[in-house]
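Suppose you are handed only these lines of text.
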Amino acid sequence: MANLDTLIQDLVIANRILAKEDVVDAYGHISVRHPDKPNHFFISRSLAPELIEKDDIVELGLDGQPVKDEKRSLYLERFIHAAIYEMRPDVTAVVHAHAEDILPFGIAKATPLKPVIHSGSFIGMNVPVWDIADTFGDHTDVLVRNMDHGRDLAKCLGSDNVALMRGHGFASAARTLIEVVRMSVYLPRNARAQMRARMLGGEIKGLSQGEIDARNSGYSPYSNETWRAWEYWANKASCGHMLTRPDGGAVHVHDHKHEHKK
Ligand code: MN
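From them, the structure of the protein bound to manganese (II) ion can be written out as follows.
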């Protein structure tokens, strides 16, 4: 299926974008659900996102195990993705990362992360914090190492878009790759704005539910505004040449050369 090829290429682009935007470093990962087999999803083998090529992408089942014979090492925390896909049929793309700016909100119990800037609206009003110790005690290594851990996290995420993971990172879930990348890029920026506003003191006025709803209702994955960001990020991450648009629209690739280590 031709679309599968394009989807996997988009997943490679998404990996490179998240690396370039400092959402992930050597750790952290992004996946996308198989469009024809909803019980399968695509994710890289265990590799830093910046280095991922198409051949690194593997197909896993909702048990987090490879559907074909696979000798290469896989991400230890692939169960985050498997469990969210299992619990959320509406979700097509998942990110797990450790972006530094969100970490304080996973450990400061008195201060929930809230959407406070327009680009942060997609995280939604409620951002739950998952604490692995609540269910699994205080002797885990804090990693999501199996389906039990993953399902506990997915349960905490519920119908929300982002869950923070205490002392660890976050998991975000969305309907499309573009959407999950955008949310994951703006999540740390939203956290930074909220943190800095707190340093200024006084009341912090976040987005209202009405403002969040209005932003959501205007959203479409291939609108000019959404595409503009994806195209920009992909070019910035030296992936402009890999861009394709499912709606056949024009793709802009700028040709001045960036430093690109291979
Ligand atoms: Mn992790």
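What can we learn from it? DSSP finds eight helices and seven strands in the chain. Residues 27, 77, 96, 98, 168-169 surround manganese (II) ion (CB under 6 Å).
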